[in-house]
Amino acid sequence: MTKSAQAADNQFLPEATFDNTAEERTYLKSRLCAAFWHFASLGFDEGIAGIITVRDPEDTGTFWTNPITVPFAHMTPDQLIRVDGATGLTVEGEGVVNLPAFSIHAEIHAARPDTQAAIHLHTTYGRAYSSLGKLLEPITQDHTAFYEDHAIFDDFTGIVFDRMEGKQIAAALGNAKGVILRNHGLVAVAETLDAAVWWFTIFDTCCHISLLAEAAGDPIALDDEVARLTAQQIGNHQVGYASAQRLLARAIDARTQVGGRS
Ligand SMILES: [Zn+2]
What's the 214 CA to ligand 1 centre distance in angstroms? Predict the structure, then answer.
């Protein structure tokens, strides 16, 4: 399905459309910066961890991402780099990528041609929940976005530079929108960057809620039938895309107010 056809299908909120790939690339780079500003505002920028990859609309084996040295809050389109999925080498822009993290994303994007974006950040609640080694139970409406739509990768063996771990994580993810990397953190993917931003944000929030609820008592999960129905209502791409709009608008506004370049 073409991008325009997808946009026409989205009755909930029309998606951005483009006349050519150059226009789409410019848009995606500015949108990617807004995503970094958003996650910076949540405190998700930590050390040299954390990566967002966005598939180039023309050279689809390459991905726009963050150079390892630039803080999320400082990101501007001219600082983004384009990295080859097969080699991990920077093919446009200045700087290098976090190679272990990129290798995971490259394998996910290779296994999932439907994914425009993948997000992996070292968040407090995502990491804490990941240590439990279990899926999220559908204990709130928001959790159902991940009902039967997230997975666990439970074979962490340290930071690995070869591609095998990335292939295994991609296999664990399957067709889902997210995977919990046990003892490591969260990965979320989507067919648009905007939706990926939303899924990652609430993936972490759901981990937070589950930690709170399980610490306080024995949370009651929704019945499978209700969880499945609610997942269809709020777990689809249109809702993910629409829900990200306010987050990203807020990040862009905050950036403008402090006089930053966008
Ligand atoms: Zn990581």
Answer: 25
Instruction: Give me ligand 1 centre to Cα 183, in Å.
Output: 10
Residues with a beta carbon under 5 angstroms from ion ligand 1? 49
The domain segmentation of the chain, as residue ranges, is: 18-252
Cα 159 to ligand 1 centre (Å): 8
pLDDT in tens, 78-127: 999 999 999 999 999 999 999 999 999 999 999 999 999 999 999 999 99
- 21-41 and 237-257 helices, crossing angle to 10°: 70
Ligand 1 center–CA 121 separation, angstroms: 6
Determine whether 19 is exposed, middle or buried from the number of CB atoms within 10 Å of its CB (0-12, 13-18, 19+). Answer: exposed
What's the CA gap between 11 and 120, in Å, rounded? 29
Q: Is residue 5 pLDDT above 60, yes or no?
A: no
SS3 73: helix
Which contiguous run of DSSP H or E holds residue 84? strand 81-84
State pLDDT tens for residues 143-167: 999 999 999 999 887 777 678 999 9
182 CA to centre of ligand 1 in angstroms:
11
Weakest-pLDDT range from 45-59, 80-94, 148-162, 194-208:
148-162
Give 29 Cα–ligand 1 centroid separation in angstroms: 22
Centre of ligand 1 to C-alpha 160, Å, is: 11
Q: How many angstroms does the Cα of residue 106 sit away from the middle of ligand 1?
A: 14
Q: Which CATH superfamily is domain 18-252 in?
A: Class II aldolase/adducin N-terminal domain (3.40.225.10)
